[in-house]
Amino acid sequence: MERDVQVSEEAAASASAPSSSFAETRVICRVCQKQFAQYTCPRCNSRYCSLTCYKGHSVQCTELFMRENVTEELKQIQPEDESKRQMLDILKRFHLEEEMESDGEDESMFSEELIQKVISGDGISLEDLSDDEIKRFRQALASGELSKMIQPWTPWWKNPAAKSISLSHDGSQLIKEMSTDVTTLSDPTTASESIINEIPEGPESPLPSLKQLTRAEPSPLLTVHLVDILYSYCFTLRLYNGDWHSDPLGASTVALSMSKVMGEDAKPETISESLTTCIEETCSPVYRHTGGFRFAIGLVEDIVTILSLGGNALVCALCDFCRLIQAGESMLKEEKVGKTERARSSHKLRAADRKLFFITCWAHEQPADAWPSLARIVEVEKSSLEELDSGSGLRKAGRKNKPQSKVLIEEV
Predict the structure, then answer these.
(1) What is the pLDDT of residue 216?
(2) Of 383, 373, 384, which is closest to residue 65 (Cα–Cα)?
(3) In the chain, is it the N or the C terminus that has fewer CB atoms within a 10 Å radius of its CB?
């Protein structure tokens, strides 16, 4: 009996004593059997050394873990919460206004004689239009109706090359592409097309760590705020058909009006709330000519695509957004506006620039597997919004023989 007690005491002492060799206490990765395991699977407790081994140790396990994350997020979405009621109100207003606008017969903007002149190849000027035609032309220009004549832009995040974006460990870009084509440099039209079709570059200099920027712990709501910022980015680029460089100040103004996080320092607490606010602005009288709810759903799909591309693509998107805001701030200095208005706009743009830089540094430090999970959550929210729209019964009511609303840019 005394011997058993002595043995137990010796075992306890041995267990609590520090190891003589750190390597002896480390476990080899159960997948590759080559590296020391630094991580543990939250589901099956398997030890692994890297993201590659995590993905390979059990596809079923990783998919189930992601599904549980999405399920947990969905539990936060109550069927009668404020966001759902607000979205139903938005859809109701949007579809009723859409029906009212489609009640009248479409009238030709120009006379038959003028149309034939254009078809024959003859140029026309504003002087060739009657007062009524000038009025209709300006109305169509203001409403965005003429946008259907513009060739739709293919977003860079749908470019196959976006799947293989590479950045250095500190976030800076690895390779900066230099153009040596004299024709491209001398032709502003070609240069503009090259700018809007290429994948945006990453940070020009290494990104600082969050510990260098703040002593406080990052807010857990940054993921929600990121969704608001990405929506604003995609909205602005699609509204300008990819060419925000043509009007940086106008584009930055649009971006801040769409993003309540950047423009009004709002702090939405759920992804549902963040998307609802953005969609409400999209369906407002100011922007509803872009396509309203259908256009908004396409933007949510854009967010899913960018997140699915991974952290490097996300950092490039945020850097592109930073450059847009900075270009708008530079353009503001050349505009002839009042001192008070200039100071207010400049303050908002600088604040947005700082916020974008911080969230870029934060996104760079997040683990790679965070983005596919977030993409799935946003995709589930998108499906929920589409169900609300189809379930409201407003889209199909009384609109069998009426023309559909015009969409600024529609994907095929």
Answers:
(1) 87
(2) 373
(3) C
